[in-house]
Records
---
Amino acid sequence: MDIIVGQKVAPQVIFAGPMGVGKTTAMRAVSGPEKVEMDVRSLEVTQMMRALGKTTTTAGFDYGECSLPDGRQVVLYGLPGQERFDLMWDLLTPGSAGIVLWAFGDRADGGMTCEMWLRALSRRQTPTRLAVAVSRLGEARREEGLQGFAALARRFHPHAAVLAADPRAPADVMRTVAMVLAAPSARFLAG
Ligand SMILES: Nc1nc2c(ncn2[C@@H]2O[C@H](COP(=O)(O)OP(=O)(O)OP(=O)(O)O)[C@@H](O)[C@H]2O)c(=O)[nH]1
Ligand SMILES: [Mg+2]
C-alpha cells in the first residue's frame, strides 16, 4: 500500500507528550510496515537522554498504521515533544478522533509537564477523546500515581481515560489506543 499522509481511511489517534516519554517508541511498538519517522540526531544530549540511551528526537512527526486486536485499523501520529516544534501540534491535532497524552510517572515534574501539555492541547476547539497514559509507574505507587493524574486530566477534559502503560509493550499501547477510542468525546475545558 502506498502511504498517503493525512488520508482519512481510519480514525486518527495522536500521541502527544514531553520529549523522551516514548511517543516514537510506542509508535514503533504497534505500527506495521507503513510508517514514517522524522527523527534527527539531537544537537543537545541531556542527562535524561543519556540515561535512556536516546540520541535522536522527532523534528516533524511520526506516522504509523496499526490493527487493533478486534481488526479495526487506526492511523497514528506522534508529535514532536520539543516546544520549538509546536507548529506540528496545532497542525495535527484538529483532525484526530482521539489524543493519547503520554506522561512520566517517575519524575517529580511529571504532573507539571502533563499540565503544560493539557493546556497546549486545550487550544483545540472541537470535541475529541483523551487518554492520559502514564509510563514508568512502579507497581507500589501505581494507584496513588494514577489518582493524581486522573484529577489533573479531568480538570481539562470531563471524560479523560487515565491508565498506566509502557510504550515499549505492544499490548499496553494497543490497550491505550482502544481505550481512547472508547472514551466519550468532549470539548477541552480551560483547566
Ligand atoms: N526504562 C524505561 N525506559 C523507557 C520506558 N518507556 C520508554 N522508555 C525509553 O525512553 C526512550 C523514549 O524515546 P522516544 O520514544 O524517542 O521518545 P519521544 O517521546 O518520541 O521523544 P521526542 O520525539 O524527542 O519528543 C526510549 O529509549 C525508550 O526505550 C519505560 O517505561 N522505562
Ligand atoms: Mg519522538
---
Amino acid sequence: MENSFHGRTLTALSATGQKKYQKGFGPLTPGFKHVSYGDINAAADVISKKTAAVMVEPVQGEGGVIMPPTGYLKDLKKLCQENNILLIFDEVQTGFGRTGRMFGSQTFKVTPDITALAKGIAGGFPMGAILASREVGNAFQPSNHAATFGGNPLACAAAKASIQVILNEDLLSKSRENGDYFKSKLNYLKDDHGIVEDVRGSGLMLGMELDINCAEMVDEMRSLGILINCTADKVLRFVPPLVIEKDQIDIVTCNLDDLLQKYSESTS
Ligand SMILES: Cc1ncc(COP(=O)(O)O)c(C=O)c1O
C-alpha cells in the first residue's frame, strides 16, 4: 500500500510504499504495485493473473496511525478470495495486544492467510515470526528458510513468557480500557488546542495529528522522561507498554497539554 512500512530488509523495503525509506538501497526487488490504502477499487484495478498476494498493515503505523476505513479489510479479504490470491497482514506493529485484541485481525475481524509478527512478540527481546494457514504453511518445510539466529530457543522462551503475561495479566482488556481512556484524554486536548487536527487509533496504538511538524515535541517530551514519537512528520504516535496505568497516562497528557499550549502560542 502507499504510505506503508514493512521494514528495511531488501524485499520488505521494496514492499514499503514510501520512497524516503528506499532512497540509496536499490536495486529493489521488483514486482510490487502500490495503491492507496483504504481504496478497495484501486486494489481491484491492479490485480492481474500474476498477482500472488495483497499485503497490508491492519493499521498503518509508520504512515501516521492510519485506521482502515470501515469494511476495508473485509473487502480486501473478499477481493483476494475471489481472485484466488493470498492476504498478508503485517502485524509487526499491531500484533500482541497493541490494538486491543491479541492481533489486529481480531480487532477488525478478518483472518488473513499469512501474518508477519515481531516487536511485542517477545516483550522487547529480538524475535520475528510468520503465521500461516495450514494450507499456505505447508509450502514451507523445516529448514527451507533458515537463518543464523532463526529458531532461537532463548527468543522463543521470552516470547512464551511474554504471551503468558499478556494473557495472565489480562493486558488485552487493559489495552482496550486504558486505550479508550488515553484517547478520550487526547480528544480533550484536541478540543482545547487548535493545532490538533485529529485523534485516532485503536487500543494502545494512538495518533494525534497536528498542523505543525512534531519532531521537536518528541525531543521535549523525552527531556521530561516521556517517550513518544513523530511519524509522517505531523503525527504524534503513542504506543506505550501494555502495562501502562491511568496515572501514567495522566502524566503524559498533562505534559502534552503544556507543550501544545507552548507550540500554539509560538505558531499564532
Ligand atoms: C508494520 C511494520 N512492519 C515491519 C516493521 C519493521 O520490522 P523490523 O524492523 O523488525 O524489520 C515495522 C517497524 O516499525 C513495522 O511497523
---
Amino acid sequence: MNSIGKLLRVDSQEVIIEKVKEIDQKHFPNPWSYSEWMTLNWGHHYLYIFTLEDEILGFALFSIVTGDNVVHLLKICLCPPYRGTEISKGFWISLLNELKQLGMSSVYLEVESTNLRAIKFYKKNNFEQLRVIKSFYSNGGDALTMNLTLVV
Ligand SMILES: CC(C)(COP(=O)(O)OP(=O)(O)OC[C@H]1O[C@@H](n2cnc3c(N)ncnc32)[C@H](O)[C@@H]1OP(=O)(O)O)[C@@H](O)C(=O)NCCC(=O)NCCS
C-alpha cells in the first residue's frame, strides 16, 4: 500500500461486490442490473478494486477467455473525487502492470461515443480507435471500439 492506493483482485467476496455494485449504480454511465452482475463467472471474469485505507476508490472488470491473452475491458470506474488525480494515474498503471503480469498482450473495449471524458482518457493512454458499432447500448447509443497493445 502507498499513499496513492492499492490494487486488489476480488472474486466471490460478497461484501466487496455489493460495494462495487453501489459504485456502478452511482457513477457508471450504463450500470448493470442485478441479474447482469449475477452472470459473473470467476473462471473468466476478473474484478479489481483500487483501495486506500479501506475505501474503494474505483474498480475495473475484465473478461479473459481461457487460454487467450486478449483482455476485454467491460467496466472501469473511478469515484468522481479521484478523477483527473494522481490516484487515477496510479489506478491505471497498477492495472496495466497486473495485466502484463498475467501475460496479456492487448486490451479491447467498447465505449459510448458520447462519453468524451473516457474516450480522451483512453486515447491519451495510447488506445487506438477501431470502429463504430451503431446502437450498441440499450439506450440506443453507438459504441466506439478501441484497442491497446500491451508492451512488456
Ligand atoms: C473513465 C475514467 C476511469 C477515466 O479516469 P479519469 O481520472 O476521469 O481520466 P483523466 O482525468 O485522467 O482523463 C480524462 C481526460 O478527459 C478530459 N475531460 C474531462 N471532461 C471532459 C469532457 N466532458 N469532454 C472531453 N474531455 C474531457 C480531462 O480533462 C482529461 O484530459 P487531460 O488529462 O488532458 O486533462 C473516469 O472518468 C470514470 O470513472 N468515468 C465514469 C465511468 C466510465 O465512463 N467508464 C468508462 C466506460 S467505457
---
Amino acid sequence: MYDYVPAFPNSEACERNKDPILAVLREVFAGCKRVIEIGSGTGQHAVHFSLQWPELVWQPTEMPAQMPWLRKRVLYEGPVNLRAPLELDVTGDDWPDTRYDGLFTANTLHIMAWPMIEALFARLPQVLRPPSILAIYGPFRFGGNYTSASNAEFDGMLRGRDPASGIRDFEAVDELARAAGLGFVANHAMPANNHILVWMGR
Ligand SMILES: C[S@@+](CC[C@H](N)C(=O)[O-])C[C@H]1O[C@@H](n2cnc3c(N)ncnc32)[C@H](O)[C@@H]1O
C-alpha cells in the first residue's frame, strides 16, 4: 500500500463516459487478448477498463508531455493487466513491435491534424493482428452534417483554437480505414452526441 496517493488530473467527461464506453467495448473487443490505446490522456479510461476487465491486457500510450502523470496513475491505480504506458506520437517511429488484437482511441481524431490521423491509420496493418479491430470514440460528422448543434459549436471552437483540428467526417476516416485493410462494421451512438465507430480486418 502507498501512504501517499497524488491527486491526478481528472477529466469529468471521462468519469461520465467510461461506463457507457466499457459496455460497448465488452462487445467490440470480446475475444481480444491485447488492446493498444492511442492518446490515453489522464489514464482514467485505461485504469477503469483494465480494472473491470482483468482478462484483457491494455496498453496505454501517450505523447511525451503527458507521460509523467499517466505513468504515475498507472503505477498507483492500475492492475497487472494494465501495462506501463509507452511514449508514442503517432507520427513518429516509436510504434511497438508487439501486435495487438484491437486498437482503441478516444477523443483524439478531432484534436490531431489530418496528417497525424493519416500516420495513425498507415500504421494499423503493422500494429494489428487478426481480428484487427479498430474502435474510435468521439464526435463525427456523417454525410457532411453535424449530429447536433452543440457539436457544430464545438467544432467552431476547435477550429478557432487550431485550424488543423476539428470534428472529422466519417466518410474520410472510413477511406483511411479501407486503405489499411479494415471494413466498417458498426456505429454505436453514445451519450452527448458521441459515437463509437468500429472497423475490422477484412
Ligand atoms: C482530448 S485528449 C483525449 C484524451 C483521452 N483519450 C480522453 O478521452 O480523455 C487528446 C489526446 O490526443 C493526444 N494526441 C494528440 N496528438 C497526438 C499524436 N500525434 N500522437 C499521439 N497522441 C496524440 C494528446 O496527447 C491527448 O492526450
